[in-house]
Amino acid sequence: MELKTLSQMIGDLEEDQVLEMLNTFVSSNPSQEDAQKVVNACQEGMGIVGELFEKGEYFVGDLIFAGELLTAAMDVLKLVMDSSGEEKTGTIVLGTAHGDLHDISKNIFKSMAQAAGFEVYDLEIDQSASEFVEKVKEVQLDIVGMSGVLTLAIDAMKDTVEALVEAGLRNEVKVIIRGNPVTKESCEHIGADAFTTNAAEGVKICQGWVKQYVRC
């Protein structure tokens, strides 16, 4: 398989060609090493999507489609991936802030994070501070990710960070936030470690944290 071609086809959102190529690859009974190389190529393709979005050549609808394409690609590759022995990049708990019922942003980030090797615990939409805290207590995590489209999500995210502080858990995780109302100023107000409006950029930030052994 030509890995660069696969990456470019994902970047170009060529769904039929991508799935045809992956199904042919899976039918060849590939090694785990080769399968991982293909997963990496898919990740690089999503990087292309992120770059085109930053340039204004792709829009939100394209990101949604890219997330769906990536999910379909990973479903095909799971057939030849040994998940029992797969080393995870890191662990993220992800959810939409309390009062916000939008999940498109969260789902795009989730797909990209999983493709990058993260284990993701998805709390879904409209999650209270206590629900984030309980999941952090339950699972040894690296990162808490929150998203929101509505302005009210800012206060809900701040409540969650404060709840992590009160529970004595804040120093154990990094916090990343994303969504339309998020800015540098609101990030500082919330007490998060980083913010992003781009899913691909957000995954890169998370990868950087894990490489620096962010767990305290």
Automatic annotation (TrEMBL):
Record Gene3D superfamilies: Cobalamin-binding domain, Methionine synthase domain
GO cellular component terms, semicolon-separated: cytosol
Residue stretches making up the B12-binding N-terminal domain: 1-89
Pfam families: B12-binding, B12-binding_2
SUPFAM superfamilies xrefs: Cobalamin (vitamin B12)-binding domain, Methionine synthase domain
GO molecular function: cobalamin binding; metal ion binding; methionine synthase activity
PROSITE patterns, per the entry: B12_BINDING, B12_BINDING_NTER
Domain B12-binding: 89-216
Keyword entries, A-Z: Cobalt, Metal-binding
InterPro entries found in the cross-reference section: Cbl-bd_cap, Cobalamin-bd, Cobalamin-bd_sf, Met_Synthase/Corrinoid, Meth_synthase_dom
GO BP annotations listed: homocysteine metabolic process; tetrahydrofolate metabolic process
Top-level lineage group: Bacteria
Protein name according to UniProt: Methanogenic corrinoid protein MtbC1
